[in-house]
Prior knowledge:
This protein is an all-alpha fold. It contains 23 helices and no strands. Helix 4 runs antiparallel to helix 12, helix 14 (272-301) runs antiparallel to helix 19 and helix 17 runs antiparallel to helix 19 (382-391). The longest helix has 38 residues, at 398-435.
Amino acid sequence: MPEDNWRPKGNIWVIAIIVTLGAFMEVLDTTIVNVALPHIAGSLSVSNDDATWALTVYLIANGIVLTISGNLSRRFGRKYFFLICIGVFTLASLGCGLSTSFPQLLFFRAVQGFFGGGLQPTQQAIILDTFPPEKRQGAFSVSAVATIIAPVVGPMVGGYLTDTYSWHLIFLINIPIGILTLFGVMHYVEDSPTVKREKKTAPRFDYIGTGFIALALGSLELFSDRGEDLDWFGSSAIVAVASICATAFIIGIGYLLYTDNPVVNLRVFKDKNFAFGWLQIGIMGLVLYASAVLMPQFAQQQLGYTATWAGLVLAPGGAVLAALIPIVSKIMNRVPAKWVIAAGGLALASSLFYSSHLIPQENFQTMVILRATQTAALSLLFVPISSIAYATLPKAQQGDAAALFNMARNVFGGIGISISTALITESAQSSQQTLVGYLNPSYQPYNILLHQIEQAAVGTGSSAAGAMQAAAGEIFQILQTQTAVLAYNRVFILTGILALVMIPTAMLMSNVKTKAGGA
Length: 519
C-alpha cells in the first residue's frame, strides 16, 4: 500500500480523542496553577513573586522540547515518544501533588514541562498522519478542545480545587487522566509507514542545534518573565540574559539553516501559508494566555473575588467556544480559510477593545460577557489557522512544522502572560505618578471630595481630626484602584491592536478552501 494511502486499523476519531486528551491535560497545567499561586506561596513559605517560578520553569522546559519534538518523535516513533511523554508527565504530576517544599515543586514542574512539551506537537503530528487531508479540519476541531478550552477552564478548575480542598489536587487530578490516555495510546495509536521508515533512517542527533534552541528559548522566557521584577535593562542580569538570547537566536538560526541534519527543519518557513499561520497562531496564543490570566487576576485583585469565582468568570466562554467550533468548521466548507481568519482577527480585536472599558465596580455578568466575546472570536481562528498552515506542506515536513507551530503558540503564550502582567504593574505606577499630582489643596475637585468624605466620617461618629486623616487615605486608595483599572484597560487595547495583525497576514495567504470531512 502506498504510504500516502495508509490508514490505522482503529477508528481515526477515537485516536484523535485519545491523543487530544493527553494534550488537553498538558495545556490545562499551563494555566491551572495561575489562581493557586497565592495558596502555594503561603503553604510552602515563599513570596508571591517566588511562587511565579512554578510557571516560569514549566514554560521554559516546555518551549525547548516543543521545538525539537518533531525530531524526537521521528527518532523514537510517534507512538513510543507520546507514551514516554504522557507516562513521565503523569509521574511528575504525582510528584508536584506530593511536594512538601518549594524546590521539590520546582523540580517536578520542570519535569512536567519538559515531557509535557512533546505532547501537543506529537498529538498534531499523529492527527496529520492518521487523517486524510479532507478530514483534517474536523480533527483539528477536536484538537481545539485541548488548545483553546483548556486554558479557559484551567483557572476555573484550579480555583475550585484550591478554595474547596487543596492546591495539591490541581496536580493529582492528572493521574487518572494520564493513566487512561496511556492505555488508550497503547491500544489504538499506530505509527505510519513513513514514521517507521524515518525511525530506521534517523541521522545522528543534533546536540549543537538543541543547545542553541535551549539557550535561545530558555533565556527568552527568563527575560520576559523576570524582566519587570529586576527593572529590565537596569539590571545586569537581565542584560546578560538578553545578550545570550539574541546571540543564541542569531547563531542558532544560521546553524539550523545550513547544517545537513538539523534538529528542526526551519525550511518549512519557505511555505508562505505555514509562515503566516505560525505568526498568527503565536499572536492567538499570546492573546489567549494573557487574557486567561488578566481576567481572573482583575477579578481577584480589584473586585475581591475568590479563586473559584475568578475561575467562573471564564467558564461560560469555554461553553461558547465549544458550541461555535463545529459551526466554524461548516463555514469553512464554503469559505476559504483566509477569509475566516481575517474575520476572526477583526472579531478578536473588537472584543479586546470592548474589554478595555472595565470600571472599578464591574459586575460579574459584564465580566462573563467580556470573556465570552473574546472566546467567541477565538473560535474563528484555531481551526482555520491549523488547517491552512499545513495545507500546502509536503508530508515529510509536517512533523517539524507541528513542533514549530505548537512552540509558537506556547512560547508566545508564555511571553503574553509575562509581558501583560509586567505592563499592568508599570502602567499602574505611571498613571499613579501622573494622577497623584491632583491630590493637593489647590485642586478644587480634590477639596470637594475630601470634604464630602470627611463629613460622612463625622456623621458616623469620627472626630474631625480622625475624619480628615481617614478621608485622605480613602482618596489615595480610590486613586490606586482607578490606576490599576486603567492599566488593565490599556493592556486590552494593546492586545487588540496586536490582534489586527491577523487581517493583513490572512490576506497574504493562499486562497485555499479546506474541507471538514465527517467529524
